[in-house]
Amino acid sequence: MTDDAWTIPEVAVAVDLAVLTVHDGALQIMLVRRGIPPFEGMLALPGGFLASTAEDLDAAAARELTEETGLGTEDLHLEQLGTYGAPDRDPRRRVVTVCYLAFSPDLPTPTAGGDAREAILLPVDEVLDHRTAVAFDHKKIISDAVERARSKLEYTTLGAAFCPPEFTMTDLRQVYEIVWGTSLDPRNFHRKITGVTGFLVPTGERVSRQVGRPAALYRRGDATVLHPAMLRNR
Amino acid sequence: MTDDAWTIPEVAVAVDLAVLTVHDGALQIMLVRRGIPPFEGMLALPGGFLASTAEDLDAAAARELTEETGLGTEDLHLEQLGTYGAPDRDPRRRVVTVCYLAFSPDLPTPTAGGDAREAILLPVDEVLDHRTAVAFDHKKIISDAVERARSKLEYTTLGAAFCPPEFTMTDLRQVYEIVWGTSLDPRNFHRKITGVTGFLVPTGERVSRQVGRPAALYRRGDATVLHPAMLRNR
DNA sequence: CGCCTTTTCGTCAACACGACGATTACTGCC
DNA sequence: GGCAGTAATCGTCGTGTTGACGAAAAGGCG
């Protein structure tokens, strides 16, 4: 802070996106395969540098989301995860990346060649496996994202952000089961969730999934916190 | 990401510190009075730009902590709070600031003129009052910091980070009461805390505070999460 | 020694939770 | 149509946790 010959160091600021979704019975994350060095050909989080020095961080996150995954910010929950800025995290130059976490309902399988430039969905278990290579420090970021998601399900209503606009109690329970990797009793889960005022709003409709009794349909309610919390077993 | 005439925009990266402590019966925050424009003379969070393009974010936070408040990183809990980067948050130029949150035991009143350059301790209620002017978007940051602190007390053992190395159950309870702004039943609090294995380790000693039965002294234990959580009333 | 204060231990009812039985409302098959 | 199979929903019961509060323990002080 002494202003001798010192000038304010300038660094490149990027935003990265950890878009989580529940797909095909597993917690999956949206990744891209890098087309340019460094880490060319490797898996990485979608993201990029600020478009200009005037671009807002949140706006950059929303822009990258659309550009790289084809998703709109109105479809999903988006929040800041954390900022990663180790000096050597990018071999080219100093980059500080602000990472955002998104919860998305199940996606219509963005097949390669679509609008999104080669965004792929992979199960987080597979990505976090020690044999899978991931660019930069993105494996650590993904690990933080998953842990944040698991934790948020405990004391917020964000589990419903993984569900489509209308969903059944079983849809929601499976979100919890898949994200936490545990199995939950359907009866106790039903009682617990319906006991939280404002979490779910029944639409009055019922839907029949293959076999069994038709389930009631719900929409997300106004509540954001889960009180009392639903703690996972440890 | 199209590499026409576009070059990666460079921005100045700063770290700010929200150092919270419980002092004089109130939750207080460490602030400095700005000596230079912009917002000269106004209250602001301690912080500053990266010392060089090679400096790690966490290291910069630790450095600023020592420089501006005289505190060492070993004395307190330090974690990332969030990153604030609205384009117009600094009138001079684009600045993205990574804010860190610190919980400190009660401080020996860093009187002006000491080592720390004019660090002052102010109750957060006063600072967040709409009549108090605070530089940049720091009021919003302080508000986020306080909310994070309140929330962390619910499901982690970080309340003890506000206490000195050895403390009584009442010391800890008062931390909760002051941070949450509620009053808690001493008997139920005692039962709850002693029921969490690993939160507190009794030293075996007792200490007499003025009047009343002497209280047992405790040290912080290994536990970091509070399970089950202690939820505040809403 | 009594009185005040604070800490600590106990009690009790209300509530929340895990385990699980029973009922309801469908689909599919014979 | 009747019956088996399945999933959703409602209930019950024992246990553990919480909030409200009584009571005892252990000090200071006059």
From TrEMBL, chains A, B:
Phylogenetic lineage: Bacteria, Bacillati, Actinomycetota, Actinomycetes, Pseudonocardiales
PROSITE patterns, alphabetized: NUDIX (PS51462)
Name of the protein this chain belongs to: NUDIX domain-containing protein
PANTHER family documented for this protein: ADP-RIBOSE PYROPHOSPHATASE, SLR1690 PROTEIN
Database matches in InterPro entries: NUDIX_hydrolase-like_dom_sf, NUDIX_hydrolase_dom, WH-like_DNA-bd_sf, WH_DNA-bd_sf, WHD_NrtR
Nudix hydrolase domain segment(s): 8-146
Pfam families with a match to the protein in the record: NUDIX, WHD_NrtR
